[in-house]
Amino acid sequence: MSDTQSVRFFSGESIPLEMHKVRVVQKLYLPPVEERLEAIRRAGFNTFLLNTREVYLDMLTDSGTNAMSDAQMGAMMQADDAYAGSQSFERMQQAIEEVFGKRFVLPVHQGRAAENIICRTYLKPGSIIPMNYHFTTTLAHIQANGGRIAELLTDGALNIKSSNPFKGNMDIAKLRALIEAEGVANVPLIRMEASTNLIGGQPFSLANLREVSKLAREYRIPLVLDASLIGENAYFIKQREPEFRNSSVADILLQMCAEADIVYFSSRKVSSSRGGAICTNRTDVFDAMKSLVPLYEGFLTYGGMSVREIEAMAVGLRETTDESVIGQSPSFIAYLVSRLEAHGIPVVTPAGGLGCHVDAMGFLPQVPQKEYPAGALAAAFYLISGVRGMERGTVSSIRDENGNDVLSDVELLRLAFPRRVFTLSQTKYIEDRMHWLHTRRDLVGGLRFVEEPPVLRFFMGRMEATSDWPERLMKAFREDFGDSL
Ligand SMILES: *Cc1c(COP(=O)(O)O)cnc(C)c1O
Fold it and tell me: Residues with beta carbon inside 6 Å of ligand 1?
């Protein structure tokens, strides 16, 4: 198995080389800038509310948008339709045992459904869940069950520019102090998230996971691993943790999962279009949760998924162990991050999984945080490129009991790289337009809410520009690019 980054070029250039070819394609449309202005206004300056008809490159998320392999498509045709006892489920269970080393599997329709079941089972009002960092849906389910979170990243992990290879590590001393202060009885779970999503797809080291696990065992607190982005985390462990340089990704995955009592994941990220599972080797854990699956998801052998999705997941899980599959997205992200850095554009370093993360506070210092710089940057970048990214900042945050924004630790524009979807020339287009926007960044202003849902507001909320900056930015684009799209 070859790594996408291991092919050296005679020219000395560092270019990520695809270890796949394209056999099914989807035609794209790049709307002119005037249409894009209309579209983003109609979408309330929220890229979630754009239609893909209005989008050239959809870099909103890697969720459910990775390219499927021929093997996955083939397996979907051989699915076994059955309400109960489907062979497709058996094949998925085998794949999970092979890749994650867990025997008992509770299927769910997507990652947050796993969070619902775990939180309903283990939390009570007043519970506190220590974690490296939260994910939006995780936090929402913990709060819905009366719990709180404690984020225990190591100091400096939120610095945008860094050479820390494992920003997703948990601070062990902080973990011990928290458990002692809150009391073991109030800490029903410890949660580690692989390729920590909201801080830029940043991994933790296996050494750190082992330390967390050791402490969890000492206090007899179950350790939960959110494995939605575990493949990339394993890839980074191989790349960055000397002890595992010669280990296979398959072996690293098994070693990671062995440390956790509960492994759950969203299959939207791992493999196919939908699905997820909660996995464990502990019968007590399995028994505690299994009755909730038929209640919220579906019978224990499909959990809200179609058998075709289950087959695609099984194959996708096995493909997660193939470095040329799992390394494709990180190598393109590393390429774009290095190109943007060369233009002096503030980006999260080291490059992580998931996507390229542009630091909106560094990019738009003139936009105060309460005017949502990451949201403004996402809207501005769509306007001048047709590329749809996602706001990961205060719009994705919440309000406190007094109705004030809880300002996000970081304001990021995430440009997600779904696996094996975009080409190098498209990546160069992104670089080019981001470079231009950076030279005209003084034109970009802030946003304010006009419609704000009380929960997970970033999905459906609508905003408006605080001035006529979108019109002025469009005019500058026309002046510099003529009649180009
Ligand atoms: C996407 C994601 C989830 C939620 O999964 P869904 O399938 O979108 O419900 C949970 N945790 C992490 C780390 C994720 O990336």
Answer: 63, 110-112, 135, 137-138, 193, 197, 226, 228-229, 266, 268-269, 276
